[in-house]
Design a protein that fits this description.
The chain is of the alpha/beta class. The chain has a single domain (5-67, 133-350), classed as Arginase, Chain A (3-Layer(aba) Sandwich), CATH 3.40.800. It is 34% helix and 14% strand. The protein has 10 helices and 10 strands. It has helices at residues 34-45, 61-64, 69-85, 102-105, 134-153, 183-193, 210-216, 265-281, 309-320, 336-350, and strands at 5-8, 20-23, 26-29, 50-53, 158-161, 199-203, 222-229, 254-259, 288-292, 326-330. The strands form 2 sheets. It has an 8-stranded parallel beta sheet, with helices on both faces. Strands 2-3 form a two-stranded antiparallel sheet. Helix 7 (210-216) links the parallel strand 6 (199-203) and strand 7 (222-229). Helix 8 (265-281) packs parallel to helix 9. The longest helix has 20 residues, at 134-153. The chain is globular. The N and C termini lie close together (5 Å). The model has no long low-confidence stretch (mean pLDDT 97). The protein binds {5-[(3-aminopropyl)amino]pentyl}boronic acid and zinc ion. The site of zinc ion has 7 residues, from loops. Zinc ion (ZN) binds next to loops.
């Protein structure tokens, strides 16, 4: 049955257009482009059971519940600061050329950079340009996730937040991997704020959600489950192995399934089955949050797994068996021509269609 699915979307993302990112030292057009969300919307619009709604403003507090205020104000001010100091001509995006790594900070004091360069102390890669529309788009993406949570609280069994920029690489005091604020983590935290004590985030993006892992690694109220390409070969390289299982109160409540190159539907669904068993054993008392990336698709230009469009329906159907209301948060996916069909396939699986 095709139950209506609220689709929380906004045009705010259109002004977040980074133009270029660096790929192995070479500037290339951004894979994470406005065209992605436009393509998804166009596909969903052909089916009237997808009900488009605007996000409502939830303010800064839900963001500050997880992210450092320095990150938030720096992202808010970086573009105007860069214009004022001439660091950008207003056309070129802001990309870092020096990182505040742990090794740099080790054993001596570090200086507070001037306002033009403060942004870089929060960046962890050169793939995440910031432009004039970025901060507002990132704020609205959070609002989309939180509005989807509101819809599920109001009784919808399934809601989809068409977030752009994505979020799962953003950590407490760190942005990168095309992500600024962690939309899915903020949605999970909102469930906790409403009284949940066991929330599950299922991350099916091709890349490990290092930001989500970091945010909840020591917590016992959010279980983070991630299926992704083995970090031995894939971005973000520094996290995502199976032995990263949480710590302290969160011991056992972070689980990773690194996958080999060309893993296909059956291989993927076998790993998902293990993840869903862990989810069931946790006895969640809140809606399921899915960090939904579609860069696991066989034709994705920056990835190497081998899922087909119908596999997303099977993933959705398997997750539906948890019997939880579900909030789907858009993450990655760069095979633009297939993106709409893949989103619909996942949502149809989740609604039993
Ligand atoms: C964001 B999401 C590889 C460069 C990787 C960044 C990928 C960010 C993915 N040489 N660039 O998880 O889809
Ligand atoms: Zn990804």
């Amino acid at each position: 049955m095709r139950v209506p699915v609220p689709v929380i979307r906004s045009d705010a993302h259109l002004a977040h257009d980074g133009l270029i990112e660096f790929l192995n030292g070479t500037p290339v057009p951004c894979f994470e482009s406005p065209a992605r969300a436009v393509a998804i919307e166009r596909a969903l619009a052909a089916d009237p059971t997808f009900v488009f709604e605007e996000p409502t403003d939830h303010g800064l507090d839900p963001i500050l519940a997880l992210h450092d205020p320095g990150l938030v104000t720096t992202l808010a001010e970086a573009w105007d600061d860069a214009l004022a100091t001439g660091m950008t001509d207003g056309l070129r995006p802001l990309l870092p050329d020096a990182f505040l790594t742990a090794a740099y900070a080790d054993g001596h004091p570090t200086s507070r950079p001037g306002r033009s360069h403060r942004l870089w102390s929060y960046a962890f890669d050169t793939a995440t340009p910031l432009v004039g529309g970025t901060y507002h788009a990132a704020r609205v993406a959070v609002d989309a996730a939180l509005t989807a949570v509101d819809r599920v609280h109001a009784g919808a069994p399934l809601a989809y937040a068409l977030c752009r920029p994505p979020g799962h690489h953003a950590g407490p005091a760190m942005y990168g991997g095309y992500c600024f604020f962690n939309n899915a983590a903020i949605a999970a935290q909102a469930l906790v704020a409403r009284g949940a004590s066991r929330v599950v985030i299922l991350d099916i993006d091709y890349h490990h959600g290092n930001g989500s892992q970091q945010l909840f690694y020591r917590r016992d109220d959010v279980l983070y489950l991630s299926l992704h390409a083995d970090p031995e070969r894939a971005y973000p390289y520094y996290s995502g192995t199976a032995d990263e299982r949480g710590a302290g109160a969160g011991e056992g409540l972070n689980r990773n399934w690194p996958l080999p190159e060309r893993a296909d539907g059956p291989r993927y669904l076998a790993a998902l089955d293990e993840a869903l068993t862990v989810a069931r054993d946790f006895a969640p008392d809140a809606p399921l949050i899915i960090s939904a990336g579609f860069d696991t698709f066989h034709a994705d230009p920056i990835a190497d797994l081998a899922l087909q469009t119908d596999d997303y329906r099977a993933i959705g159907a398997a997750a539906r068996d948890l019997g939880l209301a579900t909030v789907v948060i858009q993450e990655g996916g760069y095979a633009i021509d297939a993106l709409g069909a893949n989103v619909i396939s996942l949502l149809d699986g989740l609604r039993g269609a």
